[in-house]
């Protein structure tokens, strides 16, 4: 039986106007065992000024490791979403994220396919995505890093599409980062879909969806940035946990919500179920 652990994606402090270290410390104070940092390329004004949580991959990866160690918290993975169908962006972005993850101590690099180029065909998109994933996997394999492909965009909005992307390049490094909220909003049964990918699951975005958002958007969108507090929405977390406990590896539920208050309510709800 796999052990299910609780973490939080750093998006929960997106509106706090605080830096990465503040968010890591706050996550530990709330009782989370893991945190999922978000990384970016280059330099970005708000992060550099200390008003946003994202970390530049031009920074020393030990900055992330030290912040986690100081707070007594671990890393579940890196949020490194890029465009798989544009190799001029995705290849170097993911390769750098893999190297960054290996040095800072994050076992998984999470991404999705990204938005489609307006001028490419579907067949061309899958060739381009295969190239990007192959290059990323060749960097990840020798470093022991896993790549988590998430359901979110045009091709991964249904189970067959996600399977097709994940299987484009045969590598033990490429798995699934399942997103409960995105899969639900796409119009699918998240429990059935989770069962389908369970043997390939490497990470899970614990995203709940409010009844209001469900009524307004289900079947009309491919996902959403963050959800509501776990337990406030439509997802049955007891059922999600029970499924994850049958996974071949331990799984971190990385809560994706938009505020500190929601993160606090989420961990209180999830801890009761564990």
Q: What is the name of the CATH class?
A: Alpha Beta
Amino- and carboxy-terminal Cα gap: 13 Å
General form: globular
What does the average pLDDT come to? 98
Range of helix content: 40-55%
Biggest sheet strand order reads 5-2-1-11-10-9-8-7-6
Element-by-element helix/strand order: EHEEHEHEEHEHEHEHHEHHEH
CATH architecture: Alpha-Beta Barrel
User: Largest sheet, if any?
Assistant: 9 strands, parallel
**Uncertain ranges:** none
Class of secondary structure makeup: alpha/beta
CATH topology: TIM Barrel
The amount of beta strand, in percent, is 15-25%
The Cα radius of gyration reads: 17 Å
Q: CATH H level: which superfamily?
A: Divalent-metal-dependent TIM barrel enzymes
What is the strand tally? 11
